[in-house]
Design brief:
heterodimer, A: 239 residues, alpha/beta, Rossmann fold, 7-stranded mixed β-sheet, 33% helix, B: 412 residues, two-stranded antiparallel sheet, transport (chain A), translocase (chain A), transmembrane transporter activity (chain A), nucleotide-binding (chain A)
Chain lengths: 239, 412
C-alpha cells in the first residue's frame, strides 16, 4: 500500500479585505511518498499559494493539510515552524541564501536551528550534500562568488539538510539558464527517485512532463491531472 | 544560541561604520553618566563630610519636644486644666555629669558638655549677633574637629587668654579683628564682657564661620548669668550615619530633645534628595538617548534583512529565535560600547579631579571632588545594556512579525 506523504482536504485560502479574493478554492490532493508532483498553471492561478499552504508557510482559511498523516490546521505558529524545520525543505525561485554566510554555513543553517547533531556531524553532512550536488570545492564561497545555478544547488542542499520528508520548490528553475535548469531538475528528479517527496511549481511544460504527476491549476482549482503511468501519460479532466 | 550569535555577528561586522557609531553613542552615554555620578556624589559627600566634621553628630538640649506632663495628668485619668502658671525653672540639663557617664556607657562614641547662648559681639562700631558655645577644651577634642580646624592659636589658648574666645575666620574678617585683639561681648541680660581673641578657626561652612564663637564653659555661663549650668551635650559617634537612631535612644533615655545632624539639616538633605532625583533623571535620559543610535542601527538592519528574516522563518526558525538575533546584535554593540564607556568615564573623572575652582566666598581654591565607585560603572552599564536591548526589541519584533510569504512573493 502506498504511503501518503502530503494530503490536502478541501483546501481554501481566501484573502479577506474590502474585496475578498480566493486564491485556493477547495482543493483535494494526496501526494505519495517518493512521488514527484509538478503544479502548473497560468500566472495568478493560485499554484504558488497552494504550494505555500502545502509547505505550511501559509495557513488555510478552510480545510486541512496532513503531513505524514499529521493534521496541521490546529498547530500553533511555533509548532508549524517545527514541522517546517524537520519535515519540509524549501527551494524558491531565487536562491535566498544568507549573503554573509558561506555555502557550507547556509547548508548548516537548518541543521543548527534543529540542533540534533554535533557540529562535526553537521559539517560532515553539509560537505557531503554539497559534494553530491557538485559543489564540494565551493563550500567556503559566499553566494556572490557563485553562479546562479550553483546558488540554486546550494539552496537545494540547504533544503535537504534535515532529511525532510517533503521538498517544496517554487519555480526553482525560473531564474536559471537552460543548462542550469536541466541540472536542477535532474537533481530534484533524483531526490524523488531516492524516496523523498517533491512538489514543484513550474511554468515549464517540458519539465512538468518529467514529473510523476502534473496538476494543472486554474482559478484556484485543479483543472487537470496528468499522470505518467507505466511510461504513458494519462490525462484526467477534473472539472 | 551559537547560530544566532554567528548570524548577529555577521550582521554587525558587515556594517563597521554604523556599528562603531552605535558603540560610540553608548560609550559617550556611559562615560558621561559615570563622570556625572562621580562628580555629583563627590561634591555631596564632600559637603556632608564638612557638615559632619563641623557639627556634633547629636546635640542634646535642655528642652523637651512636647509640653511636660502635669502632675495632675499623671494622677487622674481625665483632667481639664486652664491658666497653667509659668514656673521659672533653672535652665540646663539636670545632673549633666551623671547623664554623660550614663550615655558614655553605651553610645558608640563620646560626649562632652557645653553651654550655648546667644550674644552680640561689639567691635569697631559693628554689632553682630553670634552663637557663643562654652566648651571644655580637653573634652572638646573628643567630640569635634575644632582643634583640627584651628587656623591660628590652639584650643588650650582659651584658658590662657583673659575671657578667651575662638572666632571664625569669616567673622574675624568681617569685624577686622586678629588674634590677641579684645572685643566686647554683650549677653542677654546686658552682661558685658571684654574678651580676647585667642584663636581663629575655619570649618568650611560659611554660616558657621560667620556666626559661631567658642569660649570656655565658665565664660559662656557668665554671659548667661547662670553659673555651673550645662544646657547642651554634644555627642560624636563612630558612625555618623547612625546618628538618627542613637539620637532617638538618647531622647528616650534622658527625656531631653536630642537632635541628630540629619534632623538639624533636614531641609538641606531634602534638597539633596531633589538634586539626586534630577541628576538621576538627566543620567537616565543620557543613557536612553545614547541607545537611540542602537535603535537606528537595528532598525536599518532589520529593514535590510527582511528577506533573510523571511527565509529563516520559512526554514523553520522560530519567531523569537529570529528576534533574538537582533537583540544579540544590540547587546554586542552595547557591551563593547559599555567597555569603552567605562574607560572614557574613568578618564573623564580623572581629568575633572585635576580641575581646581576658586571659591570667592571662602577665598580658597579647591579641586573638584570626584567619588569613584564601582557601583557607578555597574549601574551605568546595566541601564545602558537594558536601553540597548529595549531599543532593539521593538524594531526586531516588528520585523519578525512579517509573514514570510509576503516577503517571498515580493521578492519573486
Amino acid at each position: 500500500m502506498t504511503e501518503v506523504a502530503l494530503q490536502a482536504v478541501e483546501l481554501v485560502r481566501r484573502i479577506e479585505g474590502v474585496v475578498s479574493h480566493t486564491l485556493v478554492n477547495g482543493i483535494d490532493l494526496a501526494v505519495n511518498k517518493g512521488e514527484f508532483v509538478a503544479i502548473t498553471g497560468p500566472s495568478g492561478s493560485g499554484k504558488s499559494s497552494l504550494l505555500y499552504l502545502l509547505g505550511l508557510l501559509d495557513a488555510p482559511s478552510e480545510g486541512e493539510i496532513m503531513i505524514c498523516g499529521q493534521p496541521t490546521s490546529k498547530l500553533s505558529e511555533t509548532e508549524r515552524a517545527d514541522v517546517r524545520l524537520t519535515k519540509c525543505g524549501f527551494v524558491f525561485q531565487f536562491h535566498f541564501l544568507l549573503p554573509e554566510f558561506t555555502s557550507l554555513d547556509n547548508v548548516l543553517l537548518p541543521m543548527r536551528a534543529a540542533g540534533r547533531m554535533t557540529e562535526g556531524e553537521m559539517r560532515e553532512r553539509g560537505l557531503a550534500l554539497l559534494g553530491s550536488l557538485g559543489l564540494g570545492e565551493h563550500a567556503n564561497k559566499r553566494p556572490n562568488q557563485l553562479s546562479g545555478g550553483q546558488r540554486q544547488r546550494v539552496a537545494i542542499a540547504r533544503a535537504l539538510a534535515n532529511r525532510p520528508e517533503i521538498i517544496v520548490a517554487d519555480e526553482p528553475t525560473g531564474a536559471l539558464d537552460t543548462a542550469s535548469t536541466e541540472q536542477v531538475f535532474s537533481i530534484l528528479r533524483d531526490i524523488a527517485d531516492q524516496g523523498q517527496t517533491v512538489v514543484v511549481v513550474t511554468h515549464d511544460p517540458a519539465l512538468a512532463a518529467r514529473a510523476d504527476r502534473r496538476i494543472h491549476i486554474v482559478d484556484g482549482k485543479i483543472a487537470e491531472i496528468t499522470e505518467r503511468g507505466g511510461g504513458e501519460l494519462v490525462c484526467e479532466m477534473v472539472s | 544560541m551559537k547560530l544566532l550569535f554567528n548570524i548577529a555577528w555577521t550582521h554587525v561586522s558587515a556594517r563597521v561604520r554604523q556599528t562603531l557609531v552605535g558603540m560610540a553613542g553608548v560609550a559617550m552615554g556611559v562615560g558621561f553618566t559615570i563622570m556625572m555620578a562621580g562628580l555629583m556624589q563627590g561634591s555631596q559627600i564632600d559637603f556632608l563630610r564638612q557638615l559632619v566634621d563641623t557639627m556634633p553628630h547629636i546635640t542634646v538640649d535642655d528642652e523637651r519636644r512636647s509640653v511636660p506632663t502635669q502632675p495632675a495628668e499623671q494622677e487622674y485619668a481625665a483632667v481639664q486644666m486652664a491658666d497653667i502658671a509659668n514656673v521659672g525653672k533653672r535652665p540646663g540639663i539636670k545632673y549633666p555629669e551623671s547623664v554623660m557617664s550614663s550615655l558614655r556607657s553605651w553610645i558608640p562614641g563620646d560626649v562632652a558638655p557645653s553651654v550655648t547662648t546667644s550674644a552680640i559681639i561689639d567691635h569697631g562700631g559693628a554689632r553682630i549677633g553670634i552663637t557663643l558655645t562654652g566648651i571644655d577644651p580637653r573634652r572638646e577634642v573628643q567630640v569635634s574637629k575644632l582643634a583640627a580646624q584651628m587656623r591660628e592659636g590652639k584650643l588650650d589658648d582659651l584658658s590662657r587668654a583673659p575671657n578667651g574666645i575662638i572666632v571664625g575666620e569669616a567673622l574675624a574678617e568681617k569685624l577686622g579683628v586678629k588674634t590677641g585683639n579684645t572685643v566686647l561681648l554683650v549677653g542677654g541680660q546686658d552682661t558685658r564682657l571684654n574678651s580676647t581673641v585667642a584663636g581663629l578657626f575655619r570649618s568650611g561652612l560659611k554660616r558657621v564661620d560667620e556666626s559661631q564663637i567658642y569660649s570656655l564653659a565658665g565664660t559662656a555661663q557668665l554671659m548667661m548669668g547662670q553659673s555651673g549650668v550645662v544646657n547642651q551635650l554634644r555627642l560624636r559617634l563612630n558612625d555618623p550615619m547612625s546618628a538618627q537612631k542613637v539620637a532617638a535612644q538618647v531622647e528616650a533615655q534622658t527625656g531631653y530633645k536630642s537632635v541628630s545632624w540629619q534632623e538639624a539639616n533636614a531641609d538641606l538633605l531634602s534638597t539633596f534628595t531633589v538634586r539626586d532625583f534630577i541628576v538621576l533623571t538627566v543620567m537616565g535620559a543620557m543613557l536612553l538617548t545614547s541607545s537611540f543610535a542602537t535603535y537606528n542601527i537595528i532598525s536599518t538592519i532589520t529593514h535590510e534583512k527582511r528577506q533573510d528574516i523571511a527565509i529563516m522563518k520559512s526554514l523553520g526558525m522560530r519567531e523569537y529565535a529570529v528576534r533574538r538575533i537582533f537583540i544579540i546584535e544590540s547587546i554586542i554593540i552595547g557591551v563593547v560600547g559599555i567597555l569603552f564607556g567605562w574607560i572614557l568615564g574613568y578618564l573623564l573623572c580623572y581629568g575633572w579631579s585635576k580641575i581646581t575652582i576658586f571659591n570667592p566666598l571662602t577665598g580658597t581654591t579647591v579641586p573638584l571632588q570626584i567619588y569613584y565607585s564601582a557601583m557607578h560603572y555597574v549601574v551605568a552599564g546595566g541601564i545602558s545594556l537594558l536601553c540597548c536591548a529595549g531599543a532593539a526589541y521593538f524594531p526586531a519584533r516588528k520585523a519578525t512579525r512579517v509573514h514570510p510569504v509576503d516577503i517571498i512573493r515580493g521578492a519573486s
